[in-house]
């Protein structure tokens, strides 16, 4: 069940972050072009949102803690953003990226402790 939860969350996060990265790189900033792009992608947003929601729900059932499940989801989102940044923009993570991720994860850990 944990593997299914993590798979659902990663899949949903990949879909959403890919949509935004593709828009940034390939879609004209004209309002109507952007609107038409999002109208065409409503089914993908819906499925991605459901994947993330069910992933968090099932992980919460397994571990018994919603805060932990949301922290796992945010950590996965950060890693997905790094991967998508590399795929679309050829941005290779450097030491500053690693420090940023560590600071964010420490913040989540501190939040979890309270």
Automatic annotation (TrEMBL):
<keyword id="KW-1133">Transmembrane helix</keyword>
<keyword id="KW-0812">Transmembrane</keyword>
<keyword id="KW-0472">Membrane</keyword>
<feature type="transmembrane region" description="Helical">
    <location>
        <begin position="37"/>
        <end position="56"/>
    </location>
</feature>
<feature type="transmembrane region" description="Helical">
    <location>
        <begin position="95"/>
        <end position="111"/>
    </location>
</feature>
<dbReference type="InterPro" id="IPR037185">
    <property type="entry name" value="EmrE-like"/>
</dbReference>
<protein>
    <recommendedName>
        <fullName>EamA domain-containing protein</fullName>
    </recommendedName>
</protein>
<feature type="transmembrane region" description="Helical">
    <location>
        <begin position="68"/>
        <end position="89"/>
    </location>
</feature>
